[in-house]
Design a protein that fits this description.
mainly alpha, Arc Repressor Mutant, subunit A, two-stranded antiparallel ribbon
Length: 193
């Protein structure tokens, strides 16, 4: 244990972690708390350098330290120093953040330049109807048609669920809903088909 540190409470996930701190020659072990106390400030400075213009240095540093803590038991001092291992984690976290930021920018750009979807004239007409006109037309439908349309479009149930409620198969419910919509279209359009 490092001098000046009391025995801290350990995270149960890494409770039995004993890792060599610093260079290969060091024999001191490190807990997650000691890792943060020893390296947090330098990780923040290193993250600020490797973050680039697309990354948030504080977020990168925090995520890198979290990764290091959760993988502390995987550190192998035979493969290199703790610092080298930690700097690779920070650098890779910065690369990941840059990739995510570029992907987010690309998707945002694509959404801005996206072509408008095909216009559904029926949907536009229904939107333009006043609620009163639409409800008046629905009220003139049979009770069964009102129930079918209410379950499908107001309760937002799928056709299988609608069919189960009214005692039809999913396919029969789909056809019945379609016929009810056809009758509603006729009523909304004033009887013109």
């Amino acid at each position: 244990m490092l001098s000046g540190f009391s025995e801290p409470a350990r995270n149960h996930h890494v409770a039995e972690t004993n890792v060599v701190l610093g260079s290969r020659a060091s024999i001191a072990t490190v807990t997650p708390e000691e890792l943060c106390a020893t390296y947090a400030e330098r990780v923040c400075r290193f993250a600020a350098v490797v973050a680039g213009r697309d990354g948030d240095p504080e977020e990168i540093a925090q995520e890198a330290l979290l990764k290091a803590i959760t993988k502390l038991d995987r550190f192998d001092p035979r493969r290199g120093s703790m610092e080298g291992w930690l700097w690779r984690i920070v650098a890779n976290t910065a690369k990941d953040a840059t990739r995510k930021a570029r992907l987010r920018a690309l998707l945002t750009d694509r959404l801005r330049h996206r072509q408008p979807a095909v216009v559904d004239l029926e949907a536009v007409a229904v939107e333009r109807l006043s609620a009163g006109e639409l409800l008046g037309s629905i009220a003139r439908l049979s009770p069964r048609d009102r129930q079918l349309l209410g379950l499908r479009f107001v309760a937002d149930l799928d056709t299988a669920s609608v069919g189960q409620i009214v005692g039809l198969s999913a396919e029969s419910a789909r056809r019945a809903i379609g016929r009810a919509l056809d009758r509603l279209r006729v009523l909304v359009s004033g009887g013109v088909r």
